[in-house]
Amino acid sequence: MSELKTDTRLWSSKARNLSPYVPGEQPQHDNLCKLNTNENPFPPSPKVGEAIAKILEQQADDLRLYPAPESDDLRAALAQLYDLDVNQVFVGNGSDEVLALVFASFFMKERPVLAPDISYSFYPVYAQTFGVELVQIALEEDFSIDPDTYRQPCSGIIIANPNAPTGLLLSLADIRKLASEHSNAVVVIDEAYIDFAHIKDGNSDAQVSAVSLINDCDNILVTQTFSKSRSLAGLRVGMAFGNPSLIEALTRMKNSFNSYPLDKLAQVGATASVLDIDYFEKTRQQVIDLRQSLTAELTVLDYEVLPSHANFVFVRPKDGNASAVASALREQGIIVRHFDKPRIADYLRITVGTAEQNQRLIDALKELHIDTGVTAG
Amino acid sequence: MSELKTDTRLWSSKARNLSPYVPGEQPQHDNLCKLNTNENPFPPSPKVGEAIAKILEQQADDLRLYPAPESDDLRAALAQLYDLDVNQVFVGNGSDEVLALVFASFFMKERPVLAPDISYSFYPVYAQTFGVELVQIALEEDFSIDPDTYRQPCSGIIIANPNAPTGLLLSLADIRKLASEHSNAVVVIDEAYIDFAHIKDGNSDAQVSAVSLINDCDNILVTQTFSKSRSLAGLRVGMAFGNPSLIEALTRMKNSFNSYPLDKLAQVGATASVLDIDYFEKTRQQVIDLRQSLTAELTVLDYEVLPSHANFVFVRPKDGNASAVASALREQGIIVRHFDKPRIADYLRITVGTAEQNQRLIDALKELHIDTGVTAG
């Protein structure tokens, strides 16, 4: 952006010592197959645009007024969705803002916060921002989480579930165990991808969201987002569910940073999304189905695919040359995410796209295989 | 919201010790004359709704994608408006979020930050949130700011200009003096209301915004908002202008809290507002004109009215019984702001409304005067 040498003389030491989060790139040119930031391949519910358009038609003048500071209607819709009381629901400007407030509200304590060593890369950034010690607990060899490895003093635990970038799911029994073994710590379950998780337990679907635990466990806080399963990354809405005392802490913290984080249109659009249950159920099932077929095709191509419960797959070319595969795909206009980090440098995280996008990816991988021998090293 | 006794056991001490900001009330019933939160009496530019509606019509599906993280188009429009480089412009989720990032980026230092004793009541809240010592410098007897009273060691200075709730304006000469006398401190000028300031200097309009100083003074940072002069409180957009190194600090801090604070629709709507210069000039002049006539009428009613450069007036009933006047007005459905604080308890802050609203206020005050004798005693 600038060729100037940055003059940090007037910065706080906090500002100087930050290592900000680096989101996945958002290249803007056409015909790109963007499978790198886990956006939903389907558009949001048409009701979202309709509700916002209606507000603009009937009440555009009201944009001159401050929005509802606590997003009451949206929180009421979310409370109804999960059969909760409205005071068990918090909303913010994307789940990233919610997570920042979580770190400030519950983790700024003497003891460290525990998180998996391989997880959402914003967690270490928040820890630095809020001066919190983060202890990273190693995932097992198969990238699963063993709750027993979390048996150490802490102020809190944060786990993405399904975890990113692995896509693996932790069971509710394990989450309950973590909460009961750490009754003086807040256990945060970051469920950005939970709506794509699905487990058959005999003939019925087993519950996977920890929202079902919050009435039992007063130290579980669950965060979710509209950016993935609700196809609304562009609208910036995230939420948290927990017992009213936890929600009150978040509300106080919010009102000490920024009283009105959700604009009027985002509140209206997000509310419309929550109310359109049919569309939500239909599209999330489509993503799950597409994930299953993508997984099958990658397996045929000799990729190791972790069992994903998210809208992405975490895969390893059998020879491990993930970085070369990512570069070769990029030349074909297909962007996937490669993390140049210990333990996962041999893997690629690939967002589940539309059927066409997935086919384009598979075709490109087949070409690589045959023509360039990239995956052969 | 809840009758439960709050259990703060799991809160951080930070969360426990906060005294969150309390915004002016937003009662929802009809026929209320809401002159308490300094919203613009005019609607936003029609181009705002049109631009958002067009995006919804043509690209609603793109809400599934993350928005531009640095709001490039909006920043480019603001840069052009003020003849700046885009790397001198920062935007955030309302100027409240921008101010929070300012405190974290520039004021978290050993030395205190200085602010007027009577000013925006969010400043002491931010100081507490970020563990910054705030030294309040007394305004003069007439509520003006004397730059000489700021001659003390500090990490920064923050001044609302025009100040709130007084409406008084500090000159650019005084701001320049503050900046040069504190070359190792960031001088933040919070210009939420600057577009309503207007000074005739001979035959031409004198410049009042400190944005004109940022190329000269590398330690001046100016914040502004879309909530007042642009009638977009409902859209949550604020901005900061300063030298590229200051902007880079804010950007890094933002990316350590929340990478995508402005949703796609807010970016599009705010950009359309900036580009509609004619509408902006017309409505801000109308507000200024309405302020002048309201001031004249209040003066006739024997109210002392401070010379306001904002979209509100700060007034004192001659007998000082401001609280009783506010209560009596409320019974008539007219809400004004009374601050029960030292030095200003005898004053009321009244937002400039439409001609009709202002007339309703004046009529109600006349009635009070005659019928109830409130102001007499």
From TrEMBL, chains A, B:
It comes from the Bacteria. The keyword ATP-binding does not apply. Keywords: Amino-acid biosynthesis, Aminotransferase, Histidine biosynthesis, Pyridoxal phosphate, Transferase. It catalyses: L-histidinol phosphate + 2-oxoglutarate = 3-(imidazol-4-yl)-2-oxopropyl phosphate + L-glutamate. Residues 32-365 form the Aminotransferase class I/classII large domain. GO terms for biological process: L-histidine biosynthetic process. Its cofactor is pyridoxal 5'-phosphate. Belongs to the class-II pyridoxal-phosphate-dependent aminotransferase family. Histidinol-phosphate aminotransferase subfamily. Homodimer. HAMAP family: HisC_aminotrans_2 (MF_01023). This is Histidinol-phosphate aminotransferase. It comes from Psychrobacter aquaticus CMS 56. The lineage of its organism: Bacteria, Pseudomonadati, Pseudomonadota, Gammaproteobacteria, Moraxellales. The gene is hisC.
